[in-house]
Amino acid sequence: MINTTWLNTFKTLVEVGHFTHTAEKLYMTQPGVSQHIKKLEASLSVDLIIREGKAFELTEQGRLVYDYACDLATREKALIENLTFDDPESGHLSFSASGAIVTALYPSLLSLQKQYSGLRVNVEAAPNKRILESVADGTIDSGIVTASTQHPELSTEYLGQLELCLIGEKEMVSNMSAYEAIRQQGIINHPDAQYYLQKIFDDSGIEELKQADWKDFHKVSYINQHSQILQPVSLGIGVTVLPKVAIDYSEYSNNVDVWPTKQLVSEPLYFVQKKRRKLPARYSFLLDVIKATKFS
């Protein structure tokens, strides 16, 4: 590895052109400058200058080393400038949330990327546990979860409530009660269906659902592709429970409806990030998009 102190002395000598003036500029003695040059030459096993009395000429190897020193100085200056300038319009945005939330946010994030070509949007749909693990180990920078965390490395910011809806084909919702539809048509199952449906049973205020239990109902289909969960529902094959935003951004939204509840069924949303890490300025765009999205 090249000694950068010796290299800087050599670069200064070439630019100043005089040993004494170089020593004055670097607050060194003239013998100290000569010693640095000799040590640099010895470490590289080449002659860098040809001495002619008090003057000198660069060898071909000296020119190569000087060019390298100049390039290194330029890169160092650029690095320092980049470290002190946090460009809000460029860099990676890494983010994770449930499929429904990603579906709601992604169009706005793509619009941002189109507006600011320097942004790189990396989005992953994942359950709460994986989001927390990924933020904690640095795989992603931020996420949205539906439960606060006591993880010592993470901090959370409350965003609002995520509304959950019991969803069926439009005509079915008009003609059947929620309980009748679940009992007769069955459930379109997905990774969060049991948890969401239990929330509907417990919190909706619908009397006939209070004693309902997941195991009592037939599961007519299972799908883990979030964008396709509402397809069988729109065809009247079964009913399901999803966040309201999943309907708003679905291609099947015109063919489905929700059963009204006496009470809003929802769960809290939290923005999560590393506790002691300040996110770059570009994440202000992400937070603006999140806060502008209606989740209930």
UniProtKB/TrEMBL annotation:
Keywords: DNA-binding, Transcription, Transcription regulation. CDD domains: PBP2_LTTR_substrate (cd05466). Residues 2-59 form the HTH lysR-type domain. It holds the Pfam family LysR_substrate. The keyword Transcription regulation applies. InterPro entries: LysR_HTH_N, LysR_subst-bd, WH-like_DNA-bd_sf, WH_DNA-bd_sf. The keyword Transferase does not apply. SUPFAM superfamilies: Periplasmic binding protein-like II, Winged helix' DNA-binding domain. One of its GO terms (molecular function) is DNA-binding transcription factor activity. Belongs to the LysR transcriptional regulatory family. This is DNA-binding transcriptional regulator, LysR family. It comes from Vibrio hangzhouensis. The lineage of its organism: Bacteria, Pseudomonadati, Pseudomonadota, Gammaproteobacteria, Vibrionales.
